[in-house]
Structure formats: C-alpha cells, structure tokens
Task: structure prediction
Amino acid sequence: MGGIMIDGRTPLHVFRSGSVTGQIYRDEVLDPYVRLFRGAYGRDFLFMDDNARPHRANLVDEFLESEDIKRIPWPANSPDLNPIENLWDYLGRAIARRHPPPRDVNGLKTALLEEWSLIPQTVINNVNSSLKTRCDMCVRVREIIFHIKFVRLNSFSESFLFS
Result:
C-alpha cells in the first residue's frame, strides 16, 4: 500500500501474509502514515482511499474521525477515478519487465520496494493532476448517457402514443 501526493509519496507498505483487516489497516497505514500527513498538511488535508472492506470498517471510521481526517467520498466501483490505480499498473508493468523476474515472495517484496522508489515523481504528479479531468469526463459521460436514455424514452413514448 502506498500514498501519493503532488511532489511526494509515502514509502510502499507491504503487508505481512494474510488478509488485511480494518485493524491492520488502521495500525499499519493510518496511524503511522496518514495521521502524520494530516498533522503536516493541517486542516486542508483530504484523504482518499477506496471502498475496500478494511477501509470501511467502523474502527477505521472512528480513527479518522478522532484524528479529524476528512475522507473524500468515493463512489463504489470506480477504480478508474483513483489516481493510485494508475501507479499500481505502472508498478506491475515495471515488475513484469524485470529480468530475471522475482522468484519468491521475498524477491517480489524487494522488487516492489525498489520499483516504487524508482517511479518518477513527474508520473505521480501527472496522475494526481489528472483527477479533476477524469471526474469531469465521468460527469460528461453520465450526462450523455442520461440524454440518450431520455431521448430513447421520449421516442418510445411518442411512437407508442401516436402509432
């Protein structure tokens, strides 16, 4: 798990084996990283995660509220809007280009940590800067879909009423 911002990033956090729970997420990510960033950035800090089950656990909500960390509301099933998803793809491609490829879990962890640190900051800045454009595009697409459905509904109604 990693955090990104304009002109910065957190270290990549690789969880130990097993499932990530809300408690693990809080203890290994929110408390050591997010809380500190909130302190450094002040009241203007906005936190974005996704709708993964550990991120929505009650104890996570309570922690964020107790630390006065504002979460950006996030629509379900919208990974294409989250800038970090572009970096996970970038990271995956970097790992796939490695020769020789990682041969075990420890090798994969080492490769992930190395490749994460090698991602150019300009790439991170670009994906962060593109968020507004991607959100605007989604709104426009939704408006177009709504318009198409409305036109079809009206056409159907007119043909039904006047046939």
